[in-house]
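Q: Hi! First time doing this. I have a protein sequence and I read that you can turn it into a structure. Is that right? Here it is:
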Amino acid sequence: MCWSALQVLAWAYEHWNPTFDLGRLRRHRLEPRHAALYEREGMFPRIARGGDRRRKYSEEDIGRIMLLVKLRRTGMSVHDMQRFVQLLAGGAETHQERMTLLLEHRIKVLSQFEQVQSDLAAVDVKIAYYENKLAT
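A: Yes, that's right. Below is the predicted 3D structure, encoded as structure tokens:
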């Protein structure tokens, strides 16, 4: 069998630049709603679609979704997430600004973490109180 140059390129693209469907997202513990939300909010270029009209995610897409989910879960605002994504498109010259944005977010997360630890300590005190009451 003799392949045309176009067939070789199509085969290479498919095998060396794989895409994944929603099932692959779920295996990464990602919900399809995350991808749809971030696409709607402009944090993604248009996701490619297959012949069946289903979204096809690249490894890079999945990595970005995972990062965005973690940023959101740690309390980063949608506005700051959008800014971060804009900076990603800026290449190496935006590294400093991206790092600054992430460092500022990290400080906020650590502050929240300290508050949660303090609140958890109060819960532990109450648990110990009731354990003592029940033991007597």
